[in-house]
Design brief:
With 819 residues, the chain is of the alpha+beta class. It has 5 domains: 185 residues, Galactose-binding domain-like (Jelly Rolls, Sandwich); 96 residues, Immunoglobulin-like; 314 residues, Alpha-Beta Barrel (TIM Barrel), CATH 3.20.20.80; 93 residues, Immunoglobulins (Immunoglobulin-like), CATH 2.60.40.10; 84 residues, Immunoglobulins (Immunoglobulin-like). 21% of the residues lie in helices and 32% in strands. It has 19 helices and 46 strands. The strands form 13 sheets. The protein has a 6-stranded antiparallel sheet, with helices on one face. It has a 6-stranded parallel sheet with strand order 29-28-27-26-25-32. It has a 4-stranded antiparallel sheet with strand order 1-12-5-8, with no helix packed on it. Strand 25, helix 5 and strand 26 form a beta-alpha-beta unit. Helix 5 runs parallel beside helix 6, helix 7 packs parallel to helix 10 and helix 15 runs parallel beside helix 16. The radius of gyration is 28 Å and the shape is globular. It binds beta-D-mannopyranose. The site of beta-D-mannopyranose has 10 residues, from loops.
């Protein structure tokens, strides 16, 4: 008989067992979803308001402080299987599980799979399964009394337990402490044996693909064999001692590439466990053939930090990924696919799954495999000291084993990383004084985790931390070694300082802005709505975040006087800050080989560093990323007291052509022009060309700009910041045409210089979207926007502030010349 899996996802009810602040009068049995969470069940039953709206996060705080019980009943008939097990793919977090009134097990780790033998406790006919959750807050108090103090950047006991850290609140996330069966569960019946663990190590050997497959078998008493197949190659081998290893060589397979370098061929890999001719278990994954290594060779600057995929050094145009929703089961495979498509459309080629969230789901990785999106996965440690005593080391080893093996078949996964900012914290954040020699996690990052990766997934690189220099003898955030986090720029000094250093690899840097207008007004109903009105304030979690937003405008844009101007100016500044930082870093390829912006997404509607807001809408930053992460980037950069034009080429074919540079007045008059007959950026490299001084030196820096063009790439350079520019009042002619059922074309012909033109269609229809933002037009230039919108649109609505905005009107408003 083949192993049978029967999901137990129906008939669940939820019952409140009380706790501080428990809402009185809750029904005895609330209809519940599995997979699901207590919060989403209460929400669906109309028993709590939406925690994402206004100040409701506070109103629903009691939910996380209560204990809860989930119950279901199911029928079972003995089919004669030798073994019947109850398998939980994910339990959040502290639960006691009972079957027919008998405790069958306990859980204490959200990141593990749990399997319980329940054969002896099942009854023919109806069975009662119940899962009782203890509040993580409550358990946290117990743990805090057991462990001596350990620094944690955020309130809550996340560093004492194995539960998603950002659940307890983060500087972009609410405190919504969940409980529930966040992944599926099933009854599994099997006889003779089952595939307990399958570990495919996938590499290249020259042009050939190699699969070294290790299978561990449960209860192998009978004579068994394994049949392994991939890409037309099949191996059959006997199993001995409960394990089998097969090696398959695939001649010249099509390779798997990140999307900007090639296609993503996936091959089905199947493993069958046979007892004689009988199929008793099987396993299947789509795999890809590619090689991966992390080059950290010492060089003139320090040491490299370069991901090398299929022998191509890859410049990482990355984004940090946080859980896409506080309530994880809401992130469906479709939602993952959509978000990852949005990342890919912004020319992002790597997502870093940050350590305060989860080991991402297979649905996430499947979407990345298909999209050609590289993934760097953190182990789950963030911004805190973690004890190395008590139950923690055992839980951490168990979860690491589970997740390394679960994720290793995915070709998109290219790096394991030990933690987020903990080594930095130990060096710089005063931890050593508090710790007085107590453990803080070093043993995990420098010993346990690299050992487990080497044992289980030896073809993938491991790095101990982000940031980390490669050795405890060099400061973890040393820009010349390893990966660096650049946070003082946003926190303290201003975005022009991104160009002060050239990190080898920048795995975090970011700039805040509010969410899109539609998302802001759907989630916050303040009247009046201002940057500091209660709801807007509540949906800003960063320490003095609003002050930093305003400080960050200084020297660049005028201080906004209205809510509309605040919203636009801060979003514009976010987009420009990151564009500026990335263009600087990419222009220094190969000394710098990666930028991972903080952050791609949000888990709820909030002012944050995200490019895509909590309801999935694109902020102007998304458009700026698409531009500055383009595989061909032309940029004008300061070099040797002058200016240079830099062509950055992330393709595998050379990029060359004539470069034309013009110095112009804002009215379009050409003051100087120069064409260099050929600039050539070799494959995967950058090439620089000094701009002659007569072009690079303005006559009037307030009224001139430089424009460089090479093929269809363009770079613009201003000689002063917007507050000092004489930007004219924007003038244009517009035409609107319906080009499909829900598709419109908006044509703009500029009659003046228009800097960073945006048309915020979400202000008219929340679900409308537009093809481009931050478009700069010289007088006479034309741009056609495509708008997706099911509702009606009119030209007069579209072309009025605050729907249509540009930098000109911010500057004009400040100088008093505007409307
Ligand atoms: C780093 C990240 C996150 C945080 C971000 C913004 O510390 O690792 O913990 O959200 O900066 O402050």
């Amino acid at each position: 008989m083949q192993r049978q899996t029967r999901p137990l996802h129906s008939g669940w009810t939820l019952h409140c067992l009380g706790g501080p602040g428990a809402r009185p009068g809750l029904p005895e049995a609330i209809a519940a979803s599995v997979p699901g969470t207590v919060h989403t069940d209460l929400l669906a039953a109309g028993l709590i308001p939406d925690p994402y709206l206004d100040l409701n996060e506070i109103t629903v705080d009691w939910v996380g402080h209560c204990d809860w019980r989930y119950d279901t009943r199911f029928n079972w008939q003995d089919d004669g299987a030798d073994h019947v097990e109850l398998v939980f793919a994910g339990v959040d977090t502290f639960a006691v599980i009972s079957l027919n009134g008998i405790e069958i097990g306990q859980t204490a780790n959200m990141n593990r799979t749990y399997r319980f033998d329940v054969r002896a406790h099942l009854r023919a006919g109806e069975n009662h399964l119940s899962v009782t959750f203890q509040s993580a807050w409550k358990r946290g108090e117990v743990l805090a009394s057991q462990y001596e103090p350990r620094p944690n950047n955020y309130p809550g006991p996340a560093n004492l337990m194995r539960k998603m850290a950002c659940n307890f609140g983060w500087d972009w996330g609410p405190t919504l402490v969940t409980a529930g069966l966040w992944q599926g569960l099933a009854l599994e019946s099997w006889s003779k044996a089952r595939l307990a663990r399958v570990r495919p190590e996938i590499t290249l050997d020259g042009a050939d693909g190699l699969v070294r497959l290790h299978a561990d078998i449960d209860q192998a008493e009978t004579a068994l064999s394994l049949k392994v197949s991939v890409a037309g190659v099949t191996e059959v081998l006997p199993v001995s001692g409960g394990a089998g290893t097969a090696e398959l060589r695939v001649k010249s397979p099509e390779l798997w590439w990140p999307h900007h370098l090639g296609s993503q061929k996936l091959y089905p890999l199947t493993v069958e466990l046979l007892a004689g001719e009988e199929l008793i278990d099987s396993w299947h994954r789509d795999i890809g053939f590619r090689s991966i290594r992390l080059d950290t060779t010492p060089d003139d600057y320090g040491s490299a930090f370069t991901l090398v995929v299929n022998d191509a050094p890859v410049y990482v145009c990355g984004a940090n990924w946080i859980p896409d929703d506080c309530f994880l089961p809401r992130v469906t495979p479709e939602r993952y696919a959509e978000r990852i498509e949005q990342a890919r459309d912004a020319n992002i080629n790597l997502l870093r799954v940050w350590g305060g969230g989860i080991y991402e789901t297979d649905a996430f990785y499947d979407a990345c495999n298909r999209a050609g999106m590289l993934v760097w996965q953190d182990f789950l440690f963030a911004c805190a000291a973690y004890p190395e005593e008590g139950d923690l080391p055992g839980e951490i080893e168990a979860e690491a084993r589970d997740n390394i093996v679960r994720l290793m078949p995915h070709p998109s996964l290219v790096l394991w990383n030990g933690n987020n900012e903990n080594i930095w914290g130990w060096f710089d954040w005063g931890w050593q004084d508090v710790l007085e020699g107590r453990t803080w996690g070093q043993g995990y990052y420098l010993d346990l985790l690299p050992r487990l990766v080497a044992e289980l997934d030896p073809t993938r690189p491991y790095w101990a931390g982000s940031p980390y220099s490669g050795t405890m003898d060099i400061h973890p955030n040393d820009p010349n070694h390893g990966c660096t986090h650049l946070w003082d720029v946003w926190n303290d000094i201003g975005y022009e300082h991104y160009s002060d250093s050239v990190p080898r690899f920048c795995s975090e840097f970011g700039w805040q802005a509010p969410p899109t207008w539609a998302t802001l007004t759907q989630s916050v109903h303040d009247n009046p709505l201002t940057p500091t009105s209660p709801g807007v304030w509540h949906h800003q979690k960063a320490t003095i975040g609003n002050d930093k937003l305003l400080r960050g405008l200084k020297g660049h844009l005028p201080a906004p006087q209205t809510m509309d101007d605040w919203h636009f100016a801060t979003q514009l500044n976010q987009a420009r800050a990151i564009h500026f930082g990335v263009a600087h870093m990419r222009s220094h390829r190969p000394r710098n080989m990666g930028a991972i912006v903080w952050q791609l997404n949000d888990c709820w509607p909030v002012t944050s560093w995200a490019a895509i807001d909590g309801y999935g809408r694109k902020k102007p930053l998304w458009y700026a990323l698409r531009d500055v992460y383009a595989p061909h980037l032309l940029t004008i950069q300061p070099r040797n007291d002058g200016l240079a034009v830099v062509a950055v080429n992330d393709r595998t074919l050379f990029w060359r052509g004539p470069v034309t540079i013009k110095r112009m007045r804002f009215d379009g008059t050409v003051l100087a022009e120069w064409t260099h007959w050929r600039l050539c950026a070799d494959r995967l490299s950058a090439a620089e060309l000094a701009i002659p001084a007569d072009l690079a030196t303005p006559g009037n820096k307030r009224d001139e700009l430089l424009v460089a063009t090479m093929h269809d790439s363009m770079a613009i350079h201003y000689f002063a910041e917007d507050i000092d520019l004489e930007l004219p009042k924007a003038a244009a002619e517009f035409a609107l045409e319906r080009t499909g059922e829900a598709r419109w074309s908006l044509t703009v012909q500029a009659l003046s210089l228009i800097k960073d033109l945006c048309v915020f269609v979400d202000r008219l229809h929340p679900d409308a979207s537009i093809s481009d933002m931050l478009v700069t037009l010289l007088p006479g230039q034309v741009h056609e926007f495509t708008i997706e919108c099911v509702g009606e649109l009119s030209l007069s609505e579209l072309t009025q502030s605050p729907v249509l905005r540009c930098a000109n009107d911010l500057v004009q408003a400040a100088s008093g010349a505007g409307n």
